[in-house]
Amino acid sequence: MIYSADIRGATAPVTPRQPRVAPQQPRVQPLAAPPALEPPWHVILLDDDWHTFEYVIEMLQVIFGHPRQLGRRMAEEVDQRGRVIVATVHKELAELRQQQIEGYGPDPKETNPQGQVSMKALIECSE
């Protein structure tokens, strides 16, 4: 019987064969843009002839937490220009604030039946 040691010679060491593998290449992730952020939205209060400055100031304090001085400036601007941006926020919050303005109720100091409604607001994309 012939042993592998006899065929190769007594001095040749026997080493196991290493599998041939391609060198490892680093994985390259495709460049993807990060998800785009939604632009902010303006909540815009619209003027009418029925609500007093006090009503507007109080509403802005209650809904938005605006200080009285800022509420006064916004009431003056909506009276002069017909509209004023009262907040700039993400879309869902803008929609909620619009609903809160329109659901705030009539001005208790207004006696005219036409004035027994809430103020109106709209939202617009800031971009």
TrEMBL record:
Q: Which keywords are on file for this protein?
A: Hydrolase, Protease
Q: Which GO terms describe its biological process?
A: proteolysis
Indicate the segments forming the Adaptor protein ClpS core domain, all copies: 38-103
**GO function terms (MF aspect):** peptidase activity
Q: For the region Disordered, what residue ranges are annotated?
A: 12-33
Enumerate composition-biased segments (Low complexity): 12-31
Q: Which Pfam families match?
A: ClpS
Q: What is this protein called?
A: ATP-dependent Clp protease adaptor ClpS
Protein source organism: Prosthecobacter fluviatilis
